[in-house]
Amino acid sequence: MAAFTQHATGLLELTAQVPLVMGDRMVKNRQARLHRPAAIVRRTELRHVQHCVQWALKHQTSLTIISGGHSGHYLRTNVVAVDMGAFDQIHVLTSGAYDSDPRSGPGSGSNSSPLIIAEAGCKTRGIVDKTMAVGLTVPLGARPSIGAGLSLQGGIGHLARMHGLACDAIVGAVVVSTDSGQVFYIGHVPIQHRPVGAVSPRNDAEMLWAIKGAGTNFGIVVSITFKAYAAPTYTTRNCIIP
After folding, report:
1. Where is the FAD-binding PCMH-type domain (predicted)?
2. Alpha-carbon distance 178 to 58, whole Å?
């Protein structure tokens, strides 16, 4: 890791290709408020993430990632932060509505199960609202503004007893490698949601395991494929006892 200042000439090389976040940004985490990043860039295309990784490799420095903004590590002093907020699309794929993957096995997200494709900038509230509208759900946390970091680091929520942790629902992901900037699809990602040029890595199973909380710093997650479940419904009644 190498620290650098805001005046480093290499930063101009990056900002010429990737747009900066203009104006003040709300910082939710108290620990993160103590840090002063060199810059915050906001990617609007997949190639922007690749530019950031390739630039960091060239200058031997670090990147941090902003999703929901609750982590104390998403801002670091003199380090470039990559804001994923522009990528907030959610796609609901019902059973049989997507191309199957020959590597998929039982319970791994084959087209017998509905899937949710959530991009890295999505928040819990957006995913829950979108899935509940069609009678589905994903076991996420209870805080509506939490981002992708929840499911990528375990994820305890109110549906954990029924469906396990949030990471247990992950069946695939699109990831930009921090070793090369190459785009990978790992696990089960429907064909229509794989970026052009994305390839499956040789250590596919290990990378799928790692994004569920087993490791960090090997890639920047662009989108997550979740296995969805039928949303439970309940009848409630208020009782007033004198």
Report:
1. 33-231
2. 12
Task: Report whether 218 contacts 207 (CB < 8 A).
Answer: yes
pLDDT at residue number 212: 87
Q: Are residues 107 and 189 in the same domain?
A: yes
Range from 78-87, 108-117, 185-194, 207-216 carrying the lowest mean pLDDT: 108-117
Question: Any idea which residue has 């662009």 for tokens?
Answer: 222
Spatial CB neighbours of 49, under 8 Å, sequence gap ≥ 6: 43, 82, 176, 220, 222
Q: Is 50 a domain residue?
A: yes
99 pLDDT tier (thresholds 50, 70, 90): low
Residue 208 is part of which domain span?
A: 90-230
Contacts of 181 by beta carbon, 8 Å cutoff, 6+ apart: 50, 51, 53, 54, 57
Chain centroid to CA 203: 20
What's the CA gap between 117 and 128, in Å, rounded? 12
Q: Are residues 140 and 77 in the same domain?
A: no
> pTM for the full model?
0.80
Assess contact for 186 and 199: CB atoms under 8 A.
no
